[in-house]
Structure prediction request, 261 residues.
Amino acid sequence: MASLRDKVALVTGAGAGIGAAIALAMAAEGAVVAVADIDEAAARRTADKAAAAGARTLVVQADCGDVASIDAMVARVASELGRLDVIVNNAGVTRPAWIMDLTEADWDRIHRVNAKGVFFCLQAAARQMIGQGRGGRIINIASIAGRGFAGTSNAIYAASKGAVISLTKTAAQQLGRHDINVNSICPGVTITDLFERVVEGQARERGKTREQMLAGIEKPIPIGRANTPEDIAAMAVFLASPGARNVTGQCYNVDGGLITS
Ligand SMILES: NC(=O)c1ccc[n+]([C@@H]2O[C@H](COP(=O)([O-])OP(=O)(O)OC[C@H]3O[C@@H](n4cnc5c(N)ncnc54)[C@H](O)[C@@H]3O)[C@@H](O)[C@H]2O)c1
Prediction:
């Protein structure tokens, strides 16, 4: 199967975790993949893995909290790979903190990448896709934190993901006339570096081990297990594939049943 044969897909924050898994899964489905990350060495590691499996790749160093850097990233993909068919807005940041310990600096740092960054990546990608005149797919990585998950890393992060969910709906309504589909994925607990940093902070605060914390986190999940990054990648591949051509404006939880709304 090669559901994304010859599609050009750009994945942000693809040097690690969920973004790396999405880049590799799209490459395995035949896509040409632009691997973007603020950490160029990390992006190169993902691209090397995809290339070793036979994919054509492009490494792009980009800061998804900076509009000039976002515009340069999209322009580079278009000029070096010829066009842009799919963007996955995955780059995101957070830190574990109780609501009363959050600061203005936390708001600015988290919303700069998670909310502002997703909007301007979406807008730059849509501008390119509209110019091409052959539609496109925009996939935003939100979180069940944006749907009220009590185990969120912090309240500011939850608000940034709520912004992504709202933006997905309005963007789908306004870009549909250009055959551009816009959807979100809301990952639940997903074992990545980001997750490990959050669990480490929460474990320290509560005087527990990482294993005790993870057992407590997995207990309320109906399916009984946390996600791997590949669980999120599978949904992203579907949303980019021909089978999802009439799916737009939706936000899909991939969380083992933790949140049912
Ligand atoms: N891991 C989880 O449990 C979980 C749950 C819900 C949602 N998410 C979301 O999934 C996405 C990926 O999370 P992850 O767990 O893989 O994180 P991660 O920290 O493991 O990886 C994130 C990647 O993004 C890159 N990055 C950070 N800031 C960037 C910037 N300004 N510009 C470009 N790249 C940048 C990092 O260098 C890193 O390679 C994030 O949006 C996150 O909020 C994660």
